[in-house]
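Protocol step 4 of 6: structure prediction from sequence.
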Amino acid sequence: MIVIFGIKEKLNPIKAQLSDVIHGCMKSVLGMPEDKRAHRFIPMDKEDFYYPGGRSDAYTVIEINMMAGRQVETQKQLIKTIFQEIEIQLSIAPIDIEIVIKEQAPHQWGFRGITGDEANDLKYKVNV
């Protein structure tokens, strides 16, 4: 699951395209299937969204929650690919993007009535 935070006036107009960009990166780097998009957008009022100096109102935070197992180099490639594609496709500079990957053990995920460590029919690999 991916959660995206930003100032609503900047985030709302680009939600669909940003979702496409992020999911394209997830597919190309992690091998995620097309139908495994789980994005949650949190558009915020400017007065509720504090961010570091030197950033513009386009500042966006992307939290990627995933089952543990991806190699460090794979995770780094995902982060760098997202920075690159957002800049190319949405003209948002990397200085205005913050990405964090949060890993949880498979047994800490619950979906389809089972836990992630019980799922043996995933259409993608976790250990890449």
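Step 5 (inspection) to follow. The first strand starts at residue 2 and ends at 7.
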